Amino acid sequence: MRLIEELANRHRESELALPIWFENRTLRLLDQLKLPFEEDIQSIASIEELGEAIRSMMIRGSGAIGLCGAYGVYLAAYQSKGDVEKIRQAGDLLKSTRPTAVNLMKTVDEMVATAVSAQGDVVETLEQKAVEIIERQLEFEYQLGKYGAELIEDGDTIMTHCHSGALGGAGYGGRALSVIRAAHEQGKNIHVFTCETRPYLQGARITAYELKKFGIPHTLITDNMSGFCMNTGKIDKIVVGSDRVSANGDLANKVGTYMHALAAKENGIPFYTATSSHTIDFDTPSGDAIEVEMRNADEVTQIKGVRIAPEGTSALYPSFDITPNKLISGIITEKGVITAPFEQNLGRLNEKVNV
Ligand code: RUB
């Protein structure tokens, strides 16, 4: 436990906002459901509790739930004293929580494969692996932030959707906010329009909270205002995160993203997704093969438990939508910015930078 606890201490000293960490041999996470009004830290005692925290959106965002894969499988290893069967079951439980974000699946698979092939002590081997995954994801945030910031000009207003930030990632800025934070740290005078993101309000509750923390000027809009803002010249660029990018560059991201991308195309506004190579799913050929998580209709008919529609109203909540690659100007990754033709250029991702 020493290695993984020291990592959290180091990260806190580097002004990172951590979504999840180990402290005093206990897994802790910041309850994102209570933001921005309360910074409530929850202790997680079991893999079942972690699974429930992910399902309930207490911890969310594709990067952060990817980290849950590393922390969770290590927790199972620690508690079971390295029982590989229990580790595998914990991995399956975590993977069943949210189907769309591919990072969680990949991280769990990497941890379980490490357990299966471990030569020495399974618990120690998995602790080292978890630390490696967390460090790697953080490094990706710095790198993609640097590449993405090159696309941002002094004076730009950037629109983002949902929350693709530090608490949805490894602590620097996740994906979209790593680009924005890096541009701001470079001294560029930027302004951010954040869409509130119905029904869970991640944009209003969490993106606005982080932008305030980073000292980045911002304006909150409701999702249905984005077309007006684009059409009246208020937006220069759009940067969103990504829960999964298929091999041809189609993008699964928080529902509403597709609508913004259509309006961006119509108005000639560059539309970027910030992601990492780990979110590109080469096993999924195109967006129509991505499973879109359907959540409980109560989350639409109620806000924080308060009913906003008549009793008995039926509602639909697809948690994500698919933006086809033809609407995407570039995919910002830790290896550079990928542009069309996406299928070909994503395929060369491992070889080339800035294709
Ligand atoms: C979060 C969401 C974010 C993505 C992308 O979904 O859709 O826009 O996670 O951001 P939820 P990132 O709140 O349902 O988990 O790529 O930074 O994760």
Salient structural properties:
355 residues, alpha/beta, Four Helix Bundle (Hemerythrin (Met), subunit A), Rossmann fold, 2 domains, 7-stranded mixed β-sheet, 4-stranded mixed β-sheet, 12 helices, 41% helix, 16% strand, binds ribulose-1,5-diphosphate
Give a verbal description of the structure.
Homodimer. Its EC number is 5.3.1.23. The active site is at residue 243. Belongs to the EIF-2B alpha/beta/delta subunits family. MtnA subfamily. A hairpin with a 2-residue loop joins strand 1 (20-23) and strand 2 (26-30). The protein is 41% helix and 16% strand. 48% of the residues are buried. The strands form four sheets. A seven-stranded mixed β-sheet has the order 6-5-4-7-10-15-16. It has helices at 2-13, 47-55, 62-80, 84-95, 102-117, 122-149, 176-185, 202-214, 226-231, 257-266, 298-301, 342-347; strands at residues 20-23, 26-30, 41-44, 157-160, 191-195, 218-221, 237-240, 244-246, 251-254, 271-274, 280-281, 302-303, 306-307, 320-323, 330-333, 336-338. The radius of gyration is 19 Å and the shape is globular. The chain is an alpha/beta fold and 355 residues long. The termini are far apart. It contains twelve helices and 16 strands. The protein folds into two domains: 2-141, Four Helix Bundle (Hemerythrin (Met), subunit A), CATH 1.20.120; 142-354, Translation initiation factor eif-2b, domain 2 (Rossmann fold). Residues 60-63, 162, 164, 168-169, 174-175, 202, 241-243, 253-254, 275, 319 line the site of ribulose-1,5-diphosphate (RUB). The site of ribulose-1,5-diphosphate has 18 residues, from helix 3 and strand 9.
